[in-house]
Design goal:
322 residues; alpha/beta; five-stranded parallel sheet; 15 helices
Length: 322
Amino acid sequence: MTFDHILGHDRQKDILGRALAHGRVAHAYLFTGPEGIGKRLTAMAFARAIVCLEQRGCGQCTACRKIDHQNHPDLHLLEPDGNSIKIEQVRVFQRELNLKPLEASRKICLIDQAEALTVGAANALLKTLEEPRGDTLLILLSAQPNRLLATIRSRCQTLPFTRHPDRRIQQELEKQLGIDATESHILAALSEGSFKKAFGKDRELYVTQRRVLLKTLTGLSPGSILPILTFAEELAADKTVLPDILDIFQAFYRDVLMTLQGHAASTLINLDLQEKVNRVASRMDVDSVLAKLEALTVTRRQIERNVNRQLALEVLLMNLAD
């Protein structure tokens, strides 16, 4: 994967390309931005350009192919072990960085989900950032850079990445998957600028399961507790997909709000559920929709803080059913 193969992020690619061309590569970078928008792809393309025997990331030499297969001896990947990056992991890679590069001009360490560093791991990493070897490069990737130590952030050159425009994702979906404009519109809007979400496991959730989830949600009644408790239990069962489900609920009530405020149907995310959106909007007012959106925001924060998921969802669904 070269810079030319990465869609968008022209400014970021230009900055990194000029750093390479003028021999001004920083000792540490912090790539920030939402998950699935191309931070890791860009980091790997950068690593490839550094180790390339042609010094341009040709994609054909043995060094480039080793980077592509992630088996280059001077490339080190550090990722969460479970829910966190532990101090033992950092110490292992520090020992590797203390050795001279075997094949390339420098050793490259890619730390994915850097916000998952434990306090001990972050403090251990800080020593490497404060006293870097001249032949090492660290690239930290983070969707939540505010969770990193300020001292770590200050010792890295920060490069922010932004979400891809919906239209760009739509075009690629239609081109690569051959889907129609309505489906590509829904996927692009719900993926929030992430190609990973639009093309990955979330596609089935956003296209098919979304309809089932919203049918169940809009069928809830505040006077019927058992269906609320059952639905909450079902939603709580899969922690990994829950944030995406909350996105679906939020997008639906966003559509209801847009309808109440008189916006055109073309501005809806759920274009295929316009009738349902109109029906729900007909029995609500702006204040009640805003209250539901606030309830979703509160629940999202609670789940991020590892509260009891099922209990939080039961309270949320009672609010949404009211």
